[in-house]
Design a protein that fits this description.
Largest sheet: 6 strands, mixed
Oligomer: single chain
Membrane topology: Multi-pass membrane protein
Organism: Flavobacterium macrobrachii
Strand order of the largest sheet: 6-7-8-3-9-10
CATH superfamily of one domain: ABC transporter type 1, transmembrane domain
Radius of gyration: 37 Å
CATH topology of one domain: ABC transporter transmembrane region fold
Structural class: alpha/beta
CATH class of one domain: Mainly Alpha
GO molecular function: ATP binding
Strand content: 5-15%
CATH architecture of one domain: Up-down Bundle
Subcellular location: Cell membrane
Main location: membrane
């Protein structure tokens, strides 16, 4: 059994009753489908008046197996009796009625089987998406620094859909269609074993030809799905950076990249479709070829040898054609299952990624912050080159500590490590003497508030964006947080106030307004530790004044780690730590460091806190 098929089974187990329902009704579908063709025989027998002179006796019942073997005699007896007693027209109506009821039951069984299958497919789709999204959200930030977001989105949406659409064809493959073939063959053998020998030769040859064509399908499906992920990535990146694309007149470059991708996808999907489209006509032609042979040989048995009745032969041809539809369905479904297997492989690739940052088994829950944050001998590298080297720092409760230095000195890395977006390679980070690796991430992050340089907003109302950290916040609490963040003065003038929709990524607002809203979000969460990662570096001077006031309001009575870009942000800090290449070169307050006339003083004179 394919590994990915084994992985899907636990998802389907939840819908066991629907799987059993589908299998049960598929068995009934196959049975009634065969019986419908079998019951055409007495109709033809009445029409052609073939057994008018025969004296037909009811076979003696000697057991179920024998009774099934004598099914033709039983049908012939009752049809003869009915026709003799009530007339030929009534005999015909009786036999036609049996055929109609049988085909009604066949199609009702098909409907109920599909209903059960739909519940399984949609249920597994929902559960897979739920698990996939939970996994995507739980994976560390470092995972997405290596992966394309578009590819992850393609797996979440397109590949999971492909699993739903293609994978559960397997239920049809193992029950419905094979049983239709088996029941039809049993009926055919009972009519004429000589004719059935031809059919037994046809089935394996047909299967061999079809499997040869579909051999490379899974590999091509995987390539097509990967290309689809790349396509979504290009679209997502182009839309996110549309201002840059337009300002650099790079539309042609991005259009070419996109067009190259869709052309590759075009060739791959055409190649896949060519094989998919060949499955059905090929199996049908091979089936008709066999029926042609049957007509020649069977016609000889009827016309020359006289060993087969004409009505039986017509019913036999109907049964032989009855095999063609499931044979076509099996060949088509086997191709689609290959697509589903390729998609499932990509889905489980994400689901099985090992999360490198998780809670330990006995992780403690931090409920408060009372003493200090300590970074002890921290060494950290994103790839091979260390960004922080043997870095140590103590941040007492209630103090504001600023980190300054040139780009690449490791300032923002400290913010990433404090929030456990990344894990330290060596050393430890302690909060109140608790190693943050040994506390739950939820409780750690509930103690911290983060305001980044890129004020991340979501498409929704101001209210929804601000209450992320406190979902049950009242409107009054939200307005109070906006006032602290120096944002209420512009929010109150908006048409719908806090209910105003701010658009995708908050694009209806200016940079300064978005930044003040992100500060309000942190204020409402009200954490004891605040981390400000270059919170004013992207703002103009006027916006910076508003935001600076908001930051000072927010930092009152809180422990703050300020990663600084501009002098104005850190002048009032209790301790300023000057960093270079992942190490501390100076520390002290503003006046002390100016007096030292070292690196900090040079940075101040240059007004360049990068």
């Amino acid at each position: 059994m394919d590994e990915n098929l084994k992985k899907i089974i636990p998802f389907a187990k939840k819908y066991k009753s629907n799987v059993i329902g589908n299998i049960t009704f598929n068995i009934l579908y196959a049975l009634f489908g065969t019986l419908g063709m079998v019951f055409i025989m007495p109709v033809l027998s009445v029409l052609f008046d073939e057994r008018k002179k025969d004296v037909i006796e009811l076979p003696e019942y000697t057991g179920f197996i024998d009774a099934v073997g004598n099914w033709q005699d039983y049908i012939a007896y009752y049809v003869k009796q009915f026709s003799t007693e009530y007339g030929v027209q009534y005999g015909l109506m009786f036999t036609v009625g049996i055929v109609l009821i049988t085909f009604l039951l066949k199609n009702l069984s098909n409907y109920l089987a599909l209903q059960h299958l739909t519940k399984v497919k949609n249920g597994v789709l929902r559960d897979l998406r739920e698990k996939m999204f939970a996994k995507i959200v739980s994976l560390p930030v470092s995972y997405y620094s290596e992966k394309r977001k578009g590819d992850v989105m393609a797996r979440m949406l397109g590949d999971v859909n492909e699993v739903q659409n293609s994978f559960f064809m397997i239920l049809e493959l193992i029950v419905k269609e094979p049983l239709t073939i088996v029941f039809s063959l049993i009926a055919m053998v009972s009519i004429s074993w000589k004719l059935t020998v031809f059919v037994f030769i046809f089935i394996p040859i047909s299967g061999l030809v079809i499997s040869k064509i579909g051999k490379s399908l899974k590999g091509k499906s995987t390539k097509a799905q990967q290309e689809n992920g790349y396509l979504i990535s290009i679209t997502e990146e182009t839309l996110t950076g549309l201002k840059v694309v337009k300002s650099y007149n790079a539309e042609n470059f991005f259009s070419k990249t996109f067009n190259d991708s869709i052309n590759r996808l075009y060739k791959l999907t055409n190649s896949i479709a060519k094989k998919n489209n060949l499955a059905s006509p090929l199996s049908e032609f091979m089936g008709i070829l066999v029926i042609g042979v049957l007509l020649v040989y069977g016609g000889n048995l009827v016309l020359v040898e006289g060993s087969l009745k004409g009505s039986d032969f017509i019913a036999y041809i109907g049964l032989a054609y009855n095999i063609l539809t499931p044979a076509k369905a099996i060949s088509k479904a086997s191709y689609q299952v290959k697509n589903g297997l390729a998609a499932a492989e990509r889905v489980f690739e994400v689901l099985e990624v090992e999360n490198s940052i998780t809670d330990t088994e006995n992780a403690k829950k931090l409920t408060s912050f009372n003493q200090s944050i300590e970074l002890k001998n921290i060494t950290f590298a994103y790839n091979d080159e260390a960004v922080l080297k043997n870095f140590s720092l103590t941040i007492p409760k209630g103090k504001t500590v600023a980190l300054v230095g040139q780009s690449g000195s490791g300032k923002s890395t400290i913010a990433n490590l404090l929030t456990r977006f990344y894990e330290v390679n060596q050393g430890e980070i302690l909060i109140d003497n608790h190693n943050i690796k040994e506390v739950t991430m939820k409780s750690l992050r509930s103690l911290t508030g983060l305001v980044t340089q890129d004020s991340i907003m979501f498409n929704g109302t101001i209210k929804d964006n601000i209450r992320l950290g406190k979902l049950d916040a009242s409107d009054d609490e939200i307005i109070e947080a906006l006032k602290v963040a120096n944002a209420y003065e512009f929010v109150k003038d908006l048409p719908s106030g806090i209910e105003t929709n701010i658009g995708d990524s908050g694009n209806k607002l200016s940079g300064g307004q978005k930044q003040r809203l992100s500060i309000a979000r942190a204020v409402l969460k009200n954490p004891p530790i605040m981390i400000l990662d270059e919170a004013t570096s992207a703002l103009d001077t006027e916006s910076e004044k508003f935001v600076q006031v908001a930051l000072e309001n927010m930092m009152q009575n809180r422990t703050s780690v300020v990663i600084a870009h501009r002098l104005s942000t850190i002048q009032k800090a209790d301790v300023i730590v000057v960093m270079q290449k992942g190490e501390i070169v100076e520390q002290g307050n503003h006046d002390e460091l100016i007096a030292k006339d070292g690196m900090y003083a040079r940075l101040v004179s240059m007004q360049s806190f990068e």
